[in-house]
Amino acid sequence: MAPPSYSDLGKAARDVFNTGYVFDVLKLDVKTNQNVEIKAGGTQHLVSGAVNANLETKYVINKSKYLFTLVEKWNTNDVMTTEASISGLLPGVKLTTDGTFDRKKQTKAVRVKSEYKNDYVSLNLDTEFKALKPVINASAVVAYNGWLGGFNVKYNTNDKSVQSNNLALSYIAKQFVFTTTVNDNKLFGGSVFQKLSDQLDLGLQVSWSSENNDSSLAVGTQYQLNNDVKLRAKINNKSQLCLGSGIKIKDGVTLTLASLMECRQFNQGGHKFGIGLELAL
């Protein structure tokens, strides 16, 4: 099996901490799985009352060994994106191009992405054109006996500067994933994902910044209570306790509830709540 892209290293642990948590918002997502896949979503912020919405259509053409995908996106900030991708031209190669137009700011951007994967390596090269001199984002992941080593660099040809350079090392076992990262030689991080049973997952995240000597520690878990209910919880070294649940009301309808409690100042408020509803038609 091909190694993951650099952005997916440590994803199993991140999902434990990020998936299913919505705070200070009411969220609605609707999607269809017909010949043309349509996704529509919206959020209302409970404090400000601001409403954001987005619409996405996806059309897939699968002929012989070629797979062609066309995606159109729009949101209420008047940002429109068109993306086209094709795979199957060469083994392990995928080519993607997209264009973005911000109607409010009257700005345009074009991005060309290429990807190559085999059993031992995953290569990605993204080139974004906002001007004549592009921003290049390149990454590589190499696999060997369960170990994954990755490197990512972002280079701006306009001012000839390296905007970011990141390193990652990951070890993947059957029910265990360990990942450590170094970002810009300033932020050092690590994560552990452990599948304790078919129902229970455990995650650990740590980070330390040499720039401001700030550190963080978080522990999270998710438990599949039954076929219809998943429970989630996480806590960090700032004494922020988050609780969440995903409830399958019926086929295609999932309700998400989440809360964040400031345990250090419990009586002073600052707690957050959120509700999400996902409909699959």
Give structural notes:
The structure is a single chain. The protein has one helix and 19 strands. It has one helix at 11-18, and strands at residues 25-33, 36-45, 51-63, 66-75, 79-87, 93-102, 107-117, 121-129, 135-144, 147-156, 161-172, 176-183, 187-195, 200-209, 215-224, 229-236, 240-250, 253-262, 272-280. It has a 19-stranded mixed barrel. Strand 9 and strand 10 form a beta hairpin. The longest helix is centred in the first third of the chain and has 8 residues, at 11-18. It is globular, with a radius of gyration of 21 Å. The model has no long low-confidence stretch (mean pLDDT 94).
Global structural class: mainly beta
- Which whole number gives the mean pLDDT? 94
Total DSSP helices: 1
Q: What is Rg?
A: 21 Å
Poorly predicted regions are none
% residues in beta strands: over 45%
Oligomeric state, counting identical vs distinct chains: single chain
Main beta sheet, described? 19 strands, mixed, barrel
Overall number of strands? 19
Order of helices and strands: HEEEEEEEEEEEEEEEEEEE
- CA-based shape: globular
Query: What fraction, in percent, of the residue positions are helical?
Result: under 10%
Q: How far is the N terminus from the C terminus?
A: 32 Å
